[in-house]
Design goal:
Layout: H1 19-31, H2 35-45, H3 55-70, E1 74-80, E2 83-86, E3 94-100, E4 104-106, E5 129-130, E6 135-139, E7 141-143, H4 149-157, E8 166-170, H5 176-185, E9 190-194, H6 197-200, E10 222-223, E11 259-262, H7 264-271, E12 300-305, E13 308-311, E14 314-321, E15 326-336, H8 348-366, E16 373-380, H9 388-396, H10 398-404, E17 405-410, E18 419-424, H11 426-436, E19 442-444, E20 451-453, H12 460-466, H13 486-492, E21 497-503, H14 517-523, H15 529-547, H16 558-576, H17 586-609, H18 617-632, E22 651-653, E23 661-663, H19 665-672, H20 676-704
Parallel strand pairs: 5-10, 7-8, 8-9, 9-11, 15-16, 15-17, 17-21
Antiparallel strand pairs: 1-14, 2-13, 3-4, 3-12, 6-12, 14-16, 18-21, 19-20, 22-23
Length: about 725
């Protein structure tokens, strides 16, 4: 194991005298993660359904507390009381049926699968979409493709009126909550969301259990909550304690129509009876007949949804390893623990990495090594209902995170194959890329489902780079959009964040009862070598962030990222036309040039300051604090226009799909709205923000050169 360390990979931000000690620690952090330990954690927490707020959820919380305590870590169980939406206890959550021209009952539950003992367990949840309005609707049918805003606008152009109808939309293209929201806005009486075989069924590959893809009755559960803020719907901007003041649910903008997920065996019965015009180009799915837009006057469908909305208790479990030198500074690694059923893939294929990384660092601490900064290992509650637990935690500790948060690493659903990927705030990307040069890759062995070790010397970096395209000089690191627990840390508190993991498994059991250990081991693999690989990458990334003399953020990553963003925004503006078709980004481009010069000066100063005989420890600590201050300069004091909870002016999730990333979101919003006056103002503000970021980077460089006192930011 120790032989993997070396190879000339630089340790950014480490004083020369501390490099050898860090390399020794990293050698151990590569050796410690064990497949059998990861497998054990997986069995421990994927053994039963554990939807947030249920008895299974409480057992998972207790198990997490016990595991972290057994490692010797400090444990905080952060209880909170969110407003959740759950099916009634009698299991009668929904009914879907064709009532005319004939009566046909349609399935809303997933049947057992041969050979999968988890799928036949009594009491598995019947498919539901959390926060759907209870209701009983009988109406005609309109097919709306993926239910995107553009799809509903296309229906209007075609003269199709969805008012009073039940909309049939397939999964994909956007967050399911937007399918419901747009249907409601266009006047629909209800929504049925189905899994189409073209998107995740037999058109993709063999179905479960022969392969891993969706079966005819497999369905996707999930929340449909869409609000201008994540977290508990009744306590925006403050923690959902037991006695917190709460908004009136009727005033919040919760869904007002019934919504239900089904598999394609149910959808096929409806679609095959539709009599209207054929669908436009791109709307045809994978069933073996022509899809139609309208059902015709005879076809009537009944949709019944029953849900109970109310306050429920659940918790985040956070384990802490105190830093030896800067205990107030925090590097946080987390994944959620709640699931729609067993959750073997989502989330536990990531949660087990959090546990194994915690075990690795706890073992190292027992051997006498401690990081300079505090490391926290977090398992978040109620993520599936709307990123609730992590947001409540951020809202509780907002000021502390703003002042002392170094980085957040998210590991939701992180091991679904052997192909490593990462998405990150650009200054974090270099550290992630660097550590992958030290970790052996896992590559699938042809003819087997289970990955096998690669020949000696083949690293994750080489494997990752090989998938980036022939012209690429570095692996591709994506941007962070919405949809998981980094949202509070990154978009609200301004903590640089990343998500990482591996993909490549041939199949999907997303948000289904089939997302269990049997499916996971048959489809992703049962040797846990990819999970070991990912834990090694997490360990080294966290160790560098927690132990470097100067936090290893690279401001030189900003200029190329920002220029690419402006090019994309110019292209988008041209596509939309109107008053903002040719935005004037001159001031921003000049500010980027200035930022690039600042980053170059900083990197030159850092190299000298961390060399033999370089800057003293105090100067390095001051520079580190100034660099973190520069990250907070991205935060808009009043938040983004129209959604003040989101404060980061570099990145946010988009407004119409929920998952995608919007670069420079205030500028993007005014381009989308074709608002020339507001666009000019937002461009000017962006140039000012870039100037402030550059000032802090210059101040850090000056401290490293021995020219300044650091502006009093030490210890932040």
């Amino acid at each position: 194991g120790g032989g993997w360390v070396g190879g000339g990979v630089g340790l950014r931000g480490f004083a020369a005298a501390r490099v050898a000690g860090q390399r020794q620690a990293e050698a151990k952090l590569l050796e410690l993660p064990a497949p059998e330990s990861l497998r054990s954690f997986h069995e421990m927490f994927a053994s039963e359904p554990h939807i947030a707020g249920t008895a299974g959820d409480m057992r998972v919380i207790a198990g997490l507390e016990a595991q972290f305590r057994a490692m010797g870590l400090e444990v905080e169980t952060h209880w909170f009381w969110p407003y959740l939406s759950l099916p009634p206890g009698d299991g009668k959550a929904a009914e879907v049926s064709i009532v005319s021209p004939e009566v046909v009952e349609l399935p809303v539950a997933e049947p057992p699968v041969e050979g999968d003992p988890f799928s036949s367990r009594p009491g598995l949840p019947v498919g539901f979409n959390a926060y759907a309005a209870p209701g009983d609707v009988t109406a005609g049918v309109v097919y709306a493709n993926y239910g995107t805003k553009a799809d509903f606008e296309e229906l209007v152009r075609m003269g199709v009126d969805v008012r009073g109808t039940i909309v049939l939309a397939r999964y994909g293209g956007n967050f399911r909550g937007y399918k419901s929201l747009f249907a409601e806005q266009f006047g629909a009486a209800g929504v049925i969301i189905f899994t189409d075989p073209e998107d995740s069924g037999y058109a993709k590959g063999l179905m479960y259990p022969e392969g891993g893809f969706a079966t005819p009755r497999q369905l996707q559960m999930g929340s449909i909550l869409v609000l201008p803020y994540p977290g508990d719907p009744l306590t925006p901007n403050y923690e959902a304690t037991e006695d917190a003041p709460r908004l009136d649910p009727s005033a919040v903008g919760l869904p007002k129509i019934p919504v239900q997920p089904v598999g394609w065996s149910a959808a096929e019965k409806i679609l095959s009876r539709m009599k209207g015009a054929a669908v436009p180009e791109g709307w045809q799915g994978g069933l073996p007949f022509t899809y139609r837009v309208e059902g015709g006057p005879e076809l009537k469908v009944r949709l019944v949804v029953r849900q109970d909305r109310g306050i429920h208790k659940t918790a985040n479990v956070v384990a802490t390893l105190r830093g030896s030198k800067f205990p107030e500074q925090k590097v946080i690694v987390g994944a959620h623990h709640d699931a729609w059923s067993y959750g073997a893939g989502d989330p536990l294929a990531g949660t087990i990495l959090v546990l194994e990384s915690a075990r690795s660092f706890a073992e190292l601490a027992k051997q006498g090594w401690r990081p300079e900064r505090t490391i926290q290992f977090a398992a978040w509650g109620a993520e599936e209902f709307g990123i609730i637990g992590s947001v409540e935690y951020v809202e509780r500790y907002r000021e502390d995170l703003r002042d002392h948060g170094v980085a957040y690493i998210n590991l939701d659903m992180a091991t679904m194959g052997s192909k490593f990927w990462a998405a990150a705030h650009p200054p974090l990307a270099r550290t992630i890329i660097d550590v992958t040069r030290l970790v052996p890759a896992i590559r699938p062995d042809p003819g087997t489902r289970s990955p096998k070790p690669t020949p000696p010397g083949w690293t994750v970096y080489q494997d990752w780079l090989s998938r980036a395209g022939r012209e690429s000089k570095a692996p591709t690191v994506g941007n962070l959009g919405g949809g998981s627990d980094h949202v509070g840390f990154y978009f609200h508190a301004g903590v640089p964040s990343a998500a990482m993991g591996s993909s490549g498994g041939r199949g999907t059991s997303y948000h289904s009862n089939y997302d269990n250990l049997h499916w996971y081991r048959a489809v992703v693999g049962d040797d846990y070598l990819p999970a070991q690989m990912n834990t090694r990458i997490v360990n080294l990334t966290v160790a560098r962030l927690a132990n470097a003399d100067v936090v290893p953020l690279d401001p030189a990553a900003y200029p190329p990222a920002l220029r690419g963003m402006l090019d994309e925004l110019e292209k988008r503006a041209g596509e939309l036309g109107g008053a903002t078709a040719k935005p004037d980004f001159g001031a921003v481009r000049r500010a980027i040039d200035g930022l690039e010069a600042s980053a170059d000066r900083y990197n030159a100063a850092l190299e000298r300051a961390t060399a033999e005989g370089g800057a003293d420890a105090g100067a390095l600590a001051s520079a580190s604090a100034l660099l973190r201050d520069g990250e907070r300069a991205w935060l808009a004091p009043g938040g983004l226009p129209g959604r003040a909870w989101y404060r980061h002016q570099f990145m946010a999730n988009d407004e119409d799909s929920g998952y995608a990333a919007w670069s420079l979101p205030e500028v993007r919003l005014n381009i989308e709205r074709r608002n020339a006056d507001q666009l000019a103002r937002s461009v000017a503000r962006l140039a000012e923000v870039l100037g402030r970021v550059g000032e802090r980077i210059d101040a850090a460089a000056a401290v490293l050169r021995g020219e300044g006192a650091g502006g009093g930011a030490v210890g932040k």
